[in-house]
């Protein structure tokens, strides 16, 4: 087994079985209109939380376009200016892992 496979298995062993439900619940906090996308004004809330996660002042999201674009590029894989659940789940897995497993 190579390092990637070992790391993947160790992480899978630590992620709770109900992670999908947890991630979907968190996605719903941002997807206010329940249309399956975090977009428009909904994005500001997510980007502010991402700013905190990455060590930035969340208030800068409103005034710093460069920061907004940078944060959005971290999560919006297809660059359509909206975040799907699938895109969100990747970010949330990293966030969840850091909060629960990484010191």
Task: Describe the fold and architecture.
The protein is mainly alpha-helical and 103 residues long. The chain has one domain (17-100): Recoverin, domain 1 (Orthogonal Bundle). The protein contains six helices and two strands, in the order H-H-E-H-H-H-E-H. It has a two-stranded antiparallel sheet. Helix 2 (19-30) crosses helix 6. It is globular, with a radius of gyration of 15 Å. The model has no long low-confidence stretch (mean pLDDT 87).
Just give the CATH class. Mainly Alpha
Q: CATH superfamily assignment?
A: EF-hand
SS content category? mainly alpha
Largest sheet: 2 strands, antiparallel
Which fold name fills CATH's third level, the topology?
Recoverin, domain 1
Number of helices: 6
Instruction: List how many beta strands DSSP finds.
Output: 2
Q: What strand order characterises the main sheet?
A: 1-2
CATH architecture: Orthogonal Bundle
List keywords for this structure.
single chain; 103 residues; mainly alpha; Recoverin, domain 1; two-stranded antiparallel sheet; 6 helices; globular
Question: TL;DR?
Answer:
The protein is mostly helical and 103 residues long. The protein has a single domain (17-100), classed as EF-hand (Recoverin, domain 1, Orthogonal Bundle).
How is the secondary structure organized here?
Layout: H1 3-14, H2 19-30, E1 37-39, H3 41-53, H4 60-63, H5 65-75, E2 82-84, H6 85-100
Antiparallel strand pairs: 1-2
Helix pairs in contact: 2-6
């Amino acid at each position: 087994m190579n390092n990637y496979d070992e790391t993947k298995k160790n992480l899978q062993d630590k992620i709770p079985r109900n992670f999908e439900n947890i991630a979907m619940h968190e996605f719903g906090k941002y997807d206010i209109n329940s249309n399956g996308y975090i977009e428009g004004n909904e994005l500001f809330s997510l980007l502010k939380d991402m700013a905190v996660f990455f060590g930035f002042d969340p208030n800068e999201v409103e005034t710093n376009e460069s920061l907004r674009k940078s944060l959005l590029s971290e999560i919006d894989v297809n660059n359509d200016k909206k975040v799907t659940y699938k895109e969100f789940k990747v970010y949330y897995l990293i966030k969840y892992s850091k909060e629960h497993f990484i010191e």
